[in-house]
Design a protein that fits this description.
It holds the Pfam family RRM_1. This is RNA-binding protein. It comes from Sulfurospirillum tamanense. InterPro entries: Euk_RNA-bind_prot, Nucleotide-bd_a/b_plait_sf, RBD_domain_sf, RRM2_NsCP33-like, RRM_dom. Keywords: Repeat, RNA-binding. The protein is α+β, with helices and mostly antiparallel strands and about 90 residues long. The chain has one domain: RRM (RNA recognition motif) domain (Alpha-Beta Plaits, 2-Layer Sandwich), CATH 3.30.70.330. It has two helices and six strands; from the N terminus they run βαββαβββ. The strands form two sheets. A four-stranded antiparallel beta sheet has the order 2-3-1-6, covered by helices on one side. β2 and β3 form a beta hairpin. The protein is globular. The termini are far apart.
Amino acid sequence: MNIYVGNLSYQMTEEELKATFAPYGAVKSAKIVVDRENNNRSKGFGFVEMESQSEGNAAIEQLNGKEIGGRELRVNEARPREPREFRGSRY
C-alpha cells in the first residue's frame, strides 16, 4: 500500500520517516520529496510504501493528525498521480 504523508518537518530524514511507520508493519520504502532547484530541501511531504493493506490502514489510522517534529502529520492513502498537461516547448 502506498501512503501519502504531508506536513512533514523539513528536518525529517527518510530513515526517521521509515522508523515512524515501522511499528505498524513492514515498510518497503520511505521517500521524502525534495526540491532539486532549492538545495535538495524537503518539500514537506513524502510517501511510504507498506507491505500490506492492513498494515497501511493501521498506520494511517494511528498517525494521521499525530504531531511529530512540531507538525501535525496528514496521512492518507496515496492517489495515482494525475497526468500532467503539456504546456508547449521548454525552449
